[in-house]
Amino acid sequence: MISPFFKKKDSAASAPDQEARATSINDPELQNNEPGTEEVEQTESAAELFAVMSSSSKANLDKKSLDLIFSVEQIIQARQHSDRNIHELQDRLNHANNHVDRLNRDVKNLNKVIEEREKNILELENKLIEKNLKVDQVMEDYRELQTQMSGETEELKAVIDLEQQKYSSLMQKHNETQAERNKRINELEERISRLEAEGNHLRQKYETTRQEKAYLANMIQDFTNRMSMPFANQANSAADGSGDN
Asked: Which segments carry the region annotation Disordered (predicted)?
């Protein structure tokens, strides 16, 4: 008959083993990676058989035999414990291997993503380089155009200054000519006014002289007529007398 002490220890020791067995049954991968499961079961069977045999014959053995049996039981329990630890470590190792496999797959996927991103980055860098070259070319063209426009602007400023000077000179000449013309016009207007006044005076004088001349001519004509009438009468009388003779 098995003692209560050994039953308690066996039940306490077999609880993790049962959980491990349940885990190994539920996990197909662990079932394939458990090389020590049969050995653990054989050890447990041998321990149970030895416990039954030792408990039935303990009453007939001496102290050394009992100590030996106890030592053997401790060795068997230690072996069972080490087997369970090995089994747990094997489970952890399998779990770690599975986790490593998943991480390796993730790393491969991440490497693919990184390669694609690197390709995209390289393409973007090439596009950026092309854009920078175009921008540099545009800036160079802009600087050349700005230099050209600056030169043309300076030339236009010089031409504008020269034209402004010419315009100022022409405006000055125009003003002087306008002033001279206005002065000449004023002088001519004054002369015209003076000549008109003289002309009016001369017309008046001419009219007076003409009237006086006409008057004198009439007077002379009258005087001539009066003076010629007596001589005409005498001539007629003389002509008549000579005709009679």
From this structure: 1-44
